[in-house]
Specification:
The chain is an alpha+beta fold. The chain is built from seven helices and 18 strands. About 20% of the residues are buried. Bound molecules: zinc ion (2 copies). Belongs to the TRIM/RBCC family.
């Protein structure tokens, strides 16, 4: 707007007061006023003697004016700026600028919408997570409160029982004491008075078995105290695994699925690759191409979690496989082929088994991998089991029966085969 106004003023300043148009061959009088050369000449033509400036009426003895090239140049510029080509060009530039600003406005509106959506998502997600965390902790709190109440109740009952028994025995003893004291009195009296009748009455007193009290309760304070002074927290902690959701799954290997080069421990929790193939039973479930083995437990619903100890083994694949995977041929481990896996190569190159691989940059080398299979949300997630850092999560998890999967991979020449092991969290103590 400001520049527009400035343009208007300039045009006014460059307008001849006689013809009211832009100057043509502008000339300047001694009073510094400008006119078209022709206009001022015509204006003065019929005047006799001294002439005046049409604007300020200053008198000039002679008809003199100066050509002003500077003003002439400005007039040319202003005239050119109102030409058709110039106007069109300016219009084009304005249109382009308008379009640019329109698109910028659109961009900013979209960005604002996106930001607002993100804020909404964040808020909604936080509320959900808050509820989940609260529910998780509530379950643990309730469990602990119930456990505490139950242990205290047991202690109270046991204390009462002992007290009752000891009290009963005490009463028996008091009764017996009273009886004995009575006898003592009577006997003493008889002795003192030499009363023969009393002696007859107390003939049996000499047997010393008149008053009998049963043996008292065998309260052993050490046994009692050690029962409750045992590491209660430890016992409770082990029991807490019962309320974990999902609780740690007790997975083992299915020997019938193991490649003939794999050796399983007797408890089927550990697998190691052998340098030579072992004699094996033909089985349709067995992997014959790759050094793979499946878990003996299959899952089709619910949420399940287990851990695999990988130690310092430099090469492995592990995760979840569909029950229907092909055991006879060599296939790429990816969801399309029924595998949801995490893989390690060269000791530090971690990838998620996607198509193509998704390289993972891990800050530390996990010694234990936690595998979460959520059949309801069709999610397979991998964690560093030491601090539960999420390593990778598949959102297109298995549909149908799925099993734990482990591949030892073929050991590089000159390297010692190292085992992989399913960790059994302390559920076995329960
Ligand atoms: Zn003029
Ligand atoms: Zn003048």
């Amino acid at each position: 707007m400001a520049s527009n106004k400035k343009g208007m003023n300039l045009r006014e300043d460059l307008t001849c007061a006689i013809c009211c148009d832009l100057f043509r061959d502008p000339v300047m009088l001694g009073c510094m006023h400008h006119f078209c050369k022709r206009c001022i000449s015509t204006y003065w033509r019929n005047i006799q003697g001294p002439v005046t400036c049409p604007q300020c009426r200053q008198e000039f003895p002679t008809r003199q004016f100066q050509t002003n090239y500077l003003v002439a140049g400005l007039v040319d510029k202003v005239r050119a700026s109102s030409s058709d080509g110039y106007v069109k060009n300016v219009e084009k530039q304005l249109k382009e600028s308008l379009e640019y600003h329109h698109s910028k406005r659109e961009d900013y509106i979209n960005m604002i919408r996106k930001d607002k959506e993100q804020v909404d998502t964040l808020k909604k997600m936080s509320v959900e997570l808050q509820e989940r965390i609260q529910a998780d902790f509530q379950a643990l709190h309730s469990f602990l409160q119930e456990e505490e109440a139950s242990v205290l109740e047991q202690l109270r009952r046991e204390q009462e029982e002992w007290e009752r028994e000891l009290q009963r025995h005490l009463e028996d003893l008091n009764g017996a004491l009273q009886e004995v004291e009575q006898n003592v009195g009577t006997l003493q009296q008889a002795v003192d008075t030499k009363d023969a009748t009393v002696l007859v009455e107390f003939q049996d007193c000499n047997s010393r078995s008149t008053v009998q009290v049963t043996k008292g309760p065998d309260f052993n304070s050490q046994v009692f105290s050690s029962k409750y002074a045992s590491p209660t927290q430890y016992t409770t902690w082990r029991k807490m695994f019962q309320v974990l959701k999902p609780g740690p799954a007790q997975v083992t290997f299915d020997e019938d699925t193991a490649h003939p080069s794999l050796l399983l421990s007797r408890d089927k929790t550990t697998v190691v690759e052998l340098p030579e193939m072992q004699p094996y039973r033909l089985h349709p479930k067995r992997f014959v191409q790759c050094v793979n083995v499946l878990g003996a437990q299959s899952f089709a619903s619910g949420r399940h979690y287990w851990e695999v100890a990988v130690g310092g083994k430099p090469k492995w694949d592990l995760g979840v496989a569909l029950e229907t995977v092909d055991r006879q041929t060599r296939v790429k481990l990816c969801p399309e082929n029924g595998y949801w896996t995490l893989r390690l190569r060269e000791g530090d190159q971690y990838s998620a088994g996607t198509q193509p691989w998704t390289r993972l940059r891990l800050a530390v080398r996990p010694r234990r991998i936690g595998v979460l299979l959520d059949c309801e949300e069709r999610r397979v997630a991998f964690y560093d089991a030491d601090d539960m850092t999420l390593l990778h999560s598949f959102s297109d998890g298995p549909r149908g029966k799925a099993l734990p999967f482990v591949s030892t991979c073929v050991t590089e020449p000159g390297q010692r085969p190292q085992p992989l092991r399913f960790i059994h969290l302390p559920v076995e103590y329960l």
